[in-house]
Amino acid sequence: MESPPHTPAGSPVFLPASELRDRIRNKELSALDVTEAVLDHLETVNPLINAVVAVRAEGALADARAADALPPEERGPLHGIPFTVKDANESAQLPTAYGSLPFADYRPGFDSEVVARLRRAGGILVGSTNMPEFGLRITTDNRAFPATRNPWNTEHGPTGSSGGAAAAVAAGIGPLALAADGAGSVRAPASACGIVGLKPTRGRVPWAPASQEQWAGYVVNGPMARTVGDAALMLDAMAGPAVGEPYGLSQPSGSFLGAGVQPPRRLRVAYTCTPPHGTVVPEVREVFEEAVSAFGDLDVELVEASPDLSGFLDPLLTVIAANVATMVRGVPPEHLAELESTTLDVALRGERLGAVDYCAAVAAAQQRAADVIRFWTRYDVLLSPTLTVLPPPLGADVEGTGFEERWREYADWLAFTYPFNVTGQPAISLPAGRTDRNLPVGVQLVGAPGAEARLLGLAADFERARPWAHARPRLG
Asked: Where does residue 275 rank: exposed (0-12), middle (13-18), buried (19+ CB within 10 A)?
């Protein structure tokens, strides 16, 4: 495929992280070569899409030079690989605004545990990516920074809330991005931007140290990449418990990158295109049906079936409102007027809740989660669309004005994603095709708790059958 405009011939910016690592190891490229190429590419294409909101160019170049000076035996699994972090993940040398104007100048002065792990593995942190204020919209816009555009069709957005992360990866601004998913915020933008986005099992990747959990544990850090193998490579560097974390899972016995090995038995894959509420638009349904056909050609048993995914939305809205109210209490009074009206509306809803309301919501969610997870005693994987809709036009939003009204419409878009934040199960979005308007459509695979390796293995099979990494947006 012809290289997109603004990408010099021979540039490494669209190479997979695994290939970059091998080329650096073989001295075909240096960490400095790769980092300079990504930073040059960022400078050229980011004004077109507004994916990256803060850049540490000098720091990244210094890290790359230091990486090149390391002897081979001291090099980590991400040696020399540039990556970005979502504006919600604290890092020592970048501001962390959480997509919010009152925090635009906030510098935490520390790396969150997951950022520190990626850097210790040899990754080169180049910048932070855009998000809506506190992750409270499915569109990536806010008062602090320009709205992010979808690299495949810049008249449209990348959805959210990790829209900047997805757009950056799709546009070649680093092969890896750290993102976070509270109701679909990794998977939805991955679907909208034609990349891979994984929400791990709750507790697989820590939130320490600034917070030990987000939204009662529903929010999970996850990797974004252009290939399944790169997402697995990144997860290997991120995964593992942190001291004091409430949900920490033990370190897996094997590598997620090695998950492509054939399972000991034929997988039983259920599939559905019927959401618990809302409607799947025809363009998404058409791409999904083609993907089901492709899965049918793999060595799996394919059955049309689905768990009952109803009953999660009301508890989720209660948890979100209460947590946002707590966050807003930390904003100095003189800066409250800088918050967006929709954020204040969520916080006011949370302030009106009582302790009994919150405890009842969490208990109801746990009961429904237990019922849903039993489905995975009969099936290994659930296949569904990721989003029910296409990436919306830039500036479009839901019509509702109040918190509940807006979020019930968001939930229709995210009907296949948010239930699995509540259940805590791993889920991955994979590119499945594009529409006539060049808008990507993704499909989602959901596994039992702790079954990331199984998901990654099946995802790798689908990627081999329907490769996508060669496709690149034509920016400009």
From this structure: buried
Smallest CA-to-CA distance from 195 within 221, 162, 218, 220 is with: 162
**For residues 12 and 33, is the Cβ–Cβ distance under 8 A?**
yes
Q: For residue 416, give both structure tokens.
A: 């296949």
Chain segment 199-218, per-residue pLDDT in tens: 999 999 999 998 888 999 99
Return all residues near 16 (Cβ < 8 A) that are at least 6 apart: 175, 225, 226, 227, 229, 230, 469
- Which are the contacts of 401, defined by CB distance < 8 A and separation ≥ 6? none
- Known catalytic residues? 86, 161, 185
For residue 242, give the nearest of 361, 147, 345, 111 by alpha carbon: 111
Confidence of residue 119 (pLDDT cuts 50, 70, 90): very high
Q: Can you list the alpha helix ranges (DSSP code H) found in 128-281?
A: 163-170, 187-193, 228-238
What domains are there in the chain, each with its CATH number? 17-465 (3.90.1300.10)
Please state, in angstroms and as integers, the Cα–Cα distance from residue 103 to each residue in 26, 230, 342, 431, following that order.
43, 32, 17, 34
CB 280, CB 388: distance < 8 Å: yes
Average pLDDT over residues 90-102: 97
CB 186 within 8 A of CB 222: yes
Is the Cα torsion angle 194, 196, 199, 205 positive or negative in sign?
negative
Residue 59 burial (CB < 10 Å; 0-12/13-18/19+)?
middle
Q: Can you say how many angstroms the Cα of residue 74 is from the centroid of all Cα atoms in its chain?
A: 30
Give yes or no for residue 1 having a pLDDT over 50: no
The structure tokens 């979020």 sit at: 407
In whole angstroms, what separates CA 78 from the centre of its chain?
19
First to last CA, the chain: 16
**Residue type present at position 27:** K
Closest by CA to 136, choosing from 189, 183, 206, 205, is 183
Residue 127 identity (one-letter amino acid): G
